[in-house]
Amino acid sequence: MPKPDLFKPDYRGGGIVNLMSSILQSRGGYSDYAPLDLLPVEELSQPTNLVLLVIDGLGADWLARRSPNGILSQGLRGAITSVFPPTTAAAITTFLTGEAPLQHGLTGWFTYLRELGSVMTVLPGTPRYGGISYRQAGIDPIQLFGHTSVFDRIQARGLCVSPNFIARSDFNLSHAGSAEILPYQDLGDMFRQTARALRPQSRWGKRAQPDSTYCYLYWPKLDSLGHERGMEGTETADHLGQIERAVETFLAAIKGTDTLVMVTADHGQIDTTPADILDLADHPELEDALLLPLCGEPRAAFCYLREGRGAGFAAYCQERLGDRVDLVPSRALVEAELFGLGCEHPRFADRIGDYCLLPRGQGVIHQHLPSERPYAQIGVHGGLSRAELMVPLCVFHA
What is the distance between the alpha carbons of residues 317 and 26, in angstroms, rounded to a whole number? Predict the structure, then answer.
């Protein structure tokens, strides 16, 4: 576990959690995880400013195919792994806390929070069936998650540069800590605001004495285009070109600021077709065995079973779906260190169910609640293929 044709997250020096360890340690913080082999602490300790740009959905192999000579490939230090599952809810929480999913406890877009008695869409902060957000329901998300922000673990000025529509969401506010939040309107505005923040001015118009700064930028549009149009579509490739031109302009704008810029991603994507969809509605025996709706991701679905239904559920998956999915006890994934190393979140066992369904190839598994409209995405992620798990690490000095 995992199978030989699948990949496994690297938490010992080759993954995004190790990148965060390097950043934390370079700015006076501490991490239980080893620093990143490709980017040691000493290299990050020297510049005045550190900038981490996370491009949602940018896979390492996809970048190499789509723009082998572009600015990102020119600055490529190597490929590193995301976390499991390689998806925004789990990986972005790693970027914002410095912890692997085993510690931060968020295991997918749909995560069962037993303390709330609900399957939640943890990033928007609403129940899966619909409804109001954490704060609107009187829930303090800071206490709910119990996470310590990266910005509160470092000895440096912190900046969190986020899209307007999520900049002050419950999730973002719960994970930004002491950072100054800079909302932006579009790609150019994201980089303009960051460049301005890296060249602080005093109130008399003279250049201020530089402080040690860590700046986190998040760009979501590539992922959205991949979901809607596919990663192999022209619109997605065109958008990569827009990103690369904006990066070049940004690097020119911050020249001389003693800044190290790192570009990476939370996950990659693969494209699917309607034939790849396994709809649970076509398998009522499986759906009837579930105590809760499927959680996690369509490429890594966590199953919570009704009492006494485990043997029948497993037999059905093996006999009827054995050529389409792998059914793995969720605890086996923990023991195989797919979620991280060391001590686990006190509620982690609640959030991975009894089994995990891992569709093979480009497969996805769907289940629609009465409140949900069927919605098929072309680009998907969350599985253990190289395309989903491996992300680039690009490094630039300005």
Answer: 47
* DSSP3 helix / strand / coil % (the chain, rounded to 5): 35, 20, 45
Residues 362-379: pLDDT tens digits? Answer: 999 999 888 888 777 999
| Residue tagged 């995301």 (tokens) | 82
Residues 251-277, mean pLDDT to the nearest whole number = 96
Direct distance between the N- and C-terminal alpha carbons of the chain, in angstroms, rounded to an integer: 43
What is the model's pLDDT at position 2? 60
| Region for residue 340 given its phi and psi (left: phi exceeds 0; alpha: psi -120 to 50; beta: otherwise) | left
Arithmetic mean of pLDDT, 377-393 = 97
The predicted pLDDT at position 5 comes to: 60
> Would the pLDDT of 351 be above 70?
yes
Question: Tokens 């931060």 belong to which residue?
Answer: 104
Largest Cα separation within the chain, whole Å, is 75
128: which 2 tokens? 């899966």
Confidence of residue 202 (pLDDT cuts 50, 70, 90): very low
DSSP 163-194: ETTTTTSHHHHHHHTTPEEEEESSHHHHHHHH
Burial class (CB in 10 A: 0-12, 13-18, 19+), 155: exposed
Single-letter amino acid code for the residue at 225: L
The pair of three-digit structure tokens given for residue 41, joined into one six-digit string: 């602490």
Q: Residue 142 phi/psi, 5° resolution?
A: -65, -45
Residues paired with residue 305 on neighbouring β-strands, in sequence order: 290
